[in-house]
């Protein structure tokens, strides 16, 4: 047992039982998400972009369905600052299960040793919240696959809350929202794994991928904790 477990004992977010963020019984309420094409958002077996779809994201890997318990956990991390909740979501994800074949292309992509880039928050928002969930997910994935995280992007436009906005409004708000960081090396890595916590319309990841591709990246693959 971790010393932190004594100081901040964990409770199941669903039933309140002490011990874990999700007790064994409640874990049945966590669903793995199906993979989609990052351009048209229709099903795609391995999360790769359809041959007939155009776009800057090569593929997309979604872990959990953004509902039920996974949603409760992500919300908890966001508002309580308990990052280890996110760790629970990643370490309990069955990457190598029977259904794990949906990650075939994702794993192939990982073999290129991509640099992991988190989707940045606007500095003002990050200051308000104290942390960026995407950065935490990025470092957890980096640890898992022995990869390196680099903050290659900055958010130059404060797009505000996107919840409740129409699709067109979101797309418009995202345009020009990101730039390459000033401390970005002249040479952008060939392959980049772009990481965020949640995929809603995909406007954010697509916009980030566009900036990275324009900067010289050859392939950008997205990964989100939930969709
Ligand atoms: Zn429970
Ligand atoms: Zn498609």
From TrEMBL:
* Cross-referenced Pfam families: DZR_2 (PF18912), Pribosyltran (PF00156)
Q: Which part of the chain is the Double zinc ribbon domain?
A: 3-53
For the Phosphoribosyltransferase domain, which residue ranges apply?
170-220
Organism superkingdom: Bacteria
Annotated family: Belongs to the ComF/GntX family.
The identity of this protein, by name, is Phosphoribosyltransferase domain-containing protein
């Amino acid at each position: 047992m971790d010393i932190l477990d004594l100081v901040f004992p964990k409770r199941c977010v669903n039933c309140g039982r002490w011990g874990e963020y999700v007790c064994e019984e409640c874990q049945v309420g966590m669903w793995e998400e199906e993979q989609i094409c990052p351009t048209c958002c229709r099903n795609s077996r391995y999360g790769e972009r359809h041959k007939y779809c155009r776009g800057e994201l090569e593929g997309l890997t979604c872990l959990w369905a953004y509902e039920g318990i996974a949603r409760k956990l992500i919300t908890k991390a966001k508002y309580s600052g308990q990052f280890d909740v996110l760790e629970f979501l990643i370490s309990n994800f069955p990457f190598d299960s029977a259904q794990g074949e949906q990650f075939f292309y994702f794993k192939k992509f990982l073999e290129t040793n991509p640099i992991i880039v988190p989707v940045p928050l606007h500095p003002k928002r990050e200051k308000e919240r104290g942390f960026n969930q995407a950065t935490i997910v990025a470092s957890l994935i980096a640890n898992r696959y022995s990869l390196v995280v680099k903050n290659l992007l900055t958010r130059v436009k404060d797009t505000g809350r996107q919840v409740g906005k129409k699709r067109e409004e979101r797309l418009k708000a995202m345009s020009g929202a990101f730039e390459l960081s000033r401390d970005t090396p002249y040479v952008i890595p060939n392959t980049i794994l772009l990481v965020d916590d949640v995929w809603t319309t995909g406007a954010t990841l697509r916009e980030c991928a566009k900036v990275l591709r324009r900067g010289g990246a050859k392939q950008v693959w997205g990964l989100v904790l939930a969709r």
